Amino acid sequence: MRRAALLVAGVALGACGTSATPTRSPAAAPSPSSPPATAESAFAPQPPAPATRETRLIARMLPRVVAARGLQAKRPVPGLLLDRAALIAQVKEHVSRELPPEAIRNEGLSLQLFGFVPTEFDYEAAQYRLLEDQLAGFYEPSDGTMYMASDLGDQEAEATLAHELVHALQDGRWNLESRSKYVPGDGDRSEAVSALAEGDATSAMFDVLIASSPRGGTKSALDVPDDVFADQIRGGMDQGPGAGSPHVMRTSLAAPYIYGTLFVHALRRRGGWAAVDEAWDEPPTTTEQILHVEKWLAHEPPLVMAAPPFATLGGGWKVADEDTEGELGTRLAFEEWTDPTMAASVSADWGADRGVLVTSGDRAAYAWRLRYDPAASNDSRAARALRAIKHGAMGPAKATDDAFICRERGDRGPIAIARSGSDLVFVFGPARLTPGKWTSAGDCALARKWTREIAAARP
């Protein structure tokens, strides 16, 4: 689900794994709607001759990226090669500066209550291990520097430079640092902007690499079939040491690159790179707009959704975190319970959602309310989603009927899902977070009462 990308989202506008190197296809011509800048216009007056390997690499690659993407380089981009440990240390410094520590802890705790990661699990350390496996380099907006792993081969270094230098061009035009600020409770909008940034950089990177193919030609990233492209990115996440990470962490890390690129490609097919520039000028506000470009074109807003109440749990409970998953986060969560095709189908027509993590002493619980767009068919959409989850991988249910399913878990408390018209209500827990051994602090009777409280509340 989207929340698993929160740690990475702190640097997602600059960080990208490039272990899935694109297939080299025939060359691409620059989009006629966005004439390429020349090296002379981008770099006049010429800087002194680069003295280090990284500055030489950047000096060679930047004019190619400028030409492919059609954005001017407003300033030189300094580069620094780092070993993997130093590269991750740089990312950690960025995250500590941009994110409060409790945001990472709450994210991991939420995923534990969902059942997507183990209870005895160092989520933050696992995120960094996965990122270290995938990360080849990143552009840091705060200092305008390109950081790159020093152990990359020529092809991977070329792909990394092409991708990250697009971020440098984005930063010069649209100020990535201001757009990537962490705002509590605004996760879906942040993920949408991240997807735009990564999709833009990935699409332009493909163009640069295709243009350097010995076969040449007039093809571009748009000629790579969407399913082939998506499989390449997913395949990269399923290789190497990171392949042992929980599935939700890998899919969340890949999601902005896959769906952001498909969004950018849809725009490029409509109006070239100029259409992508327009998306930056008025960026998508939800991941629903990323997944369905026509919803961005129509400026379709989300419905209003309040956080689920939790009076049923009794006194002493307080909100630890509150956020929106969005359609993309909903799809990724559903993929943990059913197959990807079904997950995409039953997360479509997303209208709004809101989740809340609550705690009381050593107890924790999570509630999530999802609403489909208002239409006669969407009561059946909610019913279909409930059936898909029921027959998926959630596990045997203790209590079940046409509008409610619940399974009791000895370590995390009950997991229950209820349908109320075009809404789905999910509750996870409460659980008692005993060090070394979590235990349930509720049952399906409590879960049914809680889902009814949420369904009856004003949305």
Describe what this molecule looks like in 3D.
The protein is of the alpha+beta class and 459 residues long. It folds into 2 domains: 2-297, no CATH class; 311-456, 3-Layer(aba) Sandwich (Protein Transport Mog1p, Chain A), CATH 3.40.1000. The chain is 47% helix and 15% strand. It has 17 helices and 12 strands. It has helices spanning 6-9, 39-42, 53-69, 84-98, 101-114, 123-134, 154-174, 176-179, 187-211, 226-237, 247-281, 287-291, 293-297, 326-335, 340-347, 378-390, 444-456, and strands spanning 15-17, 79-82, 135-140, 145-149, 318-323, 350-360, 363-372, 399-401, 404-407, 415-420, 423-432, 439-440. The strands form 2 sheets. Strands 5, 6, 7, 8, 9, 10, 11 and 12 form an 8-stranded antiparallel sheet that branches. Strands 1-3-4-2 form a 4-stranded mixed sheet. A hairpin with a 2-residue loop joins strand 10 and strand 11 (423-432). Helix 3 crosses helix 7 (154-174), helix 7 (154-174) crosses helix 9 (187-211) and helix 10 (226-237) packs across helix 11 (247-281). The longest helix is centred in the middle third of the chain and has 35 residues, at 247-281. The model is unreliable at 2-46 (pLDDT under 50).
